[in-house]
Amino acid sequence: MLIEDTEGKRMNKNIIYIKEKYTIIKNQGKRVITNYYNQFENEMFEVFEGEHSIVFTFFDYCVRRVYFYSNDMDELAVLLRGLEGDYVLDFLTKEREALSDLFISSGFQLYAEYERFGEHIRNIDPEEQARLLKMYEKSGLYDEKYGELAKVEDAEVINRRLKEIFDPYESHFYSDDVLREMISNEWVWVAREDGKIVAAYIFTIEGRKKYGNFMYNDGPASAIYSVLTKADMEIAKKGVIYAYCWMDINNKKAIRYNTRIGHQKPDGLYDIIYRKEIAK
Q: Could you tell me which residues are beta bridge partners of residue 110?
């Protein structure tokens, strides 16, 4: 429970109220620290605030995510300390230890560390594409039978598998309706064996950039490699010139695959994830 003598106030508010509070905090003339980048703008948030800070939370799938604006780290720590229950907080930073002491002193524990990787991609003519695919096929990495756009009716199957594989405290899942919309946008590719989905690649297009959201493979290595190869070749035709994704810094296998085969490089930005668990 948030203690009232800390000047904290607890209520449910929309993003308009939160942005108005942000303007007040910004106009106080001190540097504002935040971990909020316009997520869930159409939702209602549970809000806790002081004179120089606002903390707001949102229930996303099965976890409650914590966001904040503040120019007073002591007051922010009090507000975060007042949160009771199970919460997760993402903090984007170029310094992995930034604000670590504040979050830990507020009852959060380091949960995971991700680093952003990216690569430039280019469109290639059909002749070069055919040559590359033949080369990949000879290497055993590529198999023409794998790789196609997902169908709208695949959404529930894919979503169920995502939630079986990935950690909700580290991942941002979609509703079935949102995933159907992504499929309609041609942002989901799959590989099938005997009609069953054995690999999937889910991404979003942001202008001329592609963000790789999820990738899983229950089939041979050639299944996911073929999906990625075909998807990226089609994306490049649509004017996308840069691709990026987040990888767990402890997942050496994924990093090795993406840097050696995908030619991706770290760009220096980290997503540090903290979790506050229900007191036992």
A: 274
Q: 142: which 2 tokens? A: 């590529």
Q: Which residues are registered as beta bridge partners of 139?
A: none
- Is the pLDDT at 215 greater than 50, yes or no? yes
Global pTM value: 0.88
In the 8-state DSSP scheme, what is residue 128? H
Please give the helix or strand (H or E) that residue 166 lies within, else none.
none
pLDDT of residue 39: 83
CA 238/CA 235 separation, integer angstroms: 5
According to DSSP, the residues that pair with 248 across neighbouring strands are 114
Q: Let me know: does 111 contact 277? Beta carbons within 8 Å.
A: no
Specify the CATH architecture of the domain 122-240. 3-Layer(aba) Sandwich (3.40)
Using CA atoms, how far residue 139 sits from 41, 79, 198, 255, in Å, is 46, 56, 21, 21
Going by C-alpha positions, the residue among 208, 252, 250 that lies closest to residue 120 is 208
**Which residue ranges make up each domain of the chain?**
4-84, 122-240
Confidence of residue 36 (pLDDT cuts 50, 70, 90): very high
Instruction: Tell me the β-bridge partners of 68.
Output: 55
Give strand pairing partners of 3. none
Average pLDDT, the chain: 91
Relative to beta strand 9-13, strand 209-217 is unpaired
